[in-house]
Sequence to fold (497 residues):
Amino acid sequence: MSGSPKYSTVRVAPAYARLEAERRRAQAAARRRREEQRARERAERAARRAAEAAARRERAKAEAERRRAELAERRAAEQRAHAARLRQDQAGADARRLAEVRDLLGEAMASGGVVASGELAALEQQLAALQGRIDRAEPLDGEIEELRGRIVVLRHRGETTGAGADHHAVLAALEARLAGIGSEAAEQDPEGHRACVDLIGELRATAGPGAETRFEALLGTVEHALARHAATAQRQAAEERRRAERALEAQRQAEEARREAEERAAAQAAAEEAERERLAAARAEALAEAQDRLGVVRRSAEDAADEARTLGDPDLAHRIETAVHAVTGPLADGAAADALTAVTALEELLPEAELRLDELQLAHTRRMDLAQALQDAMLGEGFAFTGGQEQGVRLVLGFQRPSGATYETTIATDGGGTPVLVYHVDGEPDVTLRPDADAAVCDSTEQLLERVHEAIGERDGFVPGELTWDGKPHGQSRPPRGEGRSLPDAGEWRWSG
Fold:
């Protein structure tokens, strides 16, 4: 190829400008419809996620209620079982003591104690009532000991222990009274029990003829000792019951404290588990939201990246693909917060990218329309079309005259969006291979291209400006501002079709 490139800016005709304005309005409407559709889809997916989350929360709430109810029931059952054990233990002790009282009543009746029939019936009725309470494991206070005291009094009512009474009968009655105080009395009041046994032994030693005075004197001491021993044993029994009750209460409280500690630990563990589940659920919901929102825009973003690369904007394609990867990476890693941040950025980038793609598409359409007008005009001047190809945001067309001369035409756009035609001519006789800087010869080529430009302008789409080139004589126009030498590697563009 020889000669300097020739340049011409191209003004868009009013009719074509109106057509482009209508296309822009249609593109804007299409963008709005896409955004509205995405917003609807996001809302639908969000509503579905919210319903699913609400259902999960209800299931979790029901499960928590079930666990609380089970825990409360288990605690109540343990408390009931513990109380039942305590009542059974106490009922066993009460049953043993009541059996002694029943035996004591039987002995009193067998020894000929003076008991009225009504009084006996009352005693038997009280025995039955106490037995019923024991069977029901109801707590008893001092009722058994009170009944024991009444029977002891009844048993010795009418005993002959005064003056003139048979010493052996008196001794037998005293021994019976000691036995009637109860077998536990020896353990409850060991000193009193030994004193009674010793005194009865001394009394037995004085029994017999001629010792009546000594016997009677010692008899009062024995009866007093027996009375004191019975009272002391009764007090000790009451104290033992109270100690047993306190011990049982302490045991109950210790058991209750243990259960409460276990329940607190279980509640703490449950709270920690619930918090972990809450955080896991929140993370899962956030990941689901990011996944859903990506699903709304991913196909559009990938299509936009492909279109950007097709329309000659690889930087935009890279931005979009990077934004998509910024979402998919955290999603794969389970980083919910990063995924949400990245998908928000992608949602904001997509409308901006689609606006840029619409402008690129308009520029592409403008180049194609200008290329069609140029091709028709060149064919009208006898040129043959040899092919064309897109090189990014440039469109390169090849033409050949019957003489063999070739015209490679590049349709580009300057920084302000104005179309520019750049011609590289090879093989025309009026093109000097090494033209002087002050005198270039391009008369016939210039006239030919000016006729082509006139033909383009007649189509009511584009109006090419003045043709210029480097080295054009003084007084004629230089290459259009922003074109000429500012076009990168203009002298190296080649038609390769």
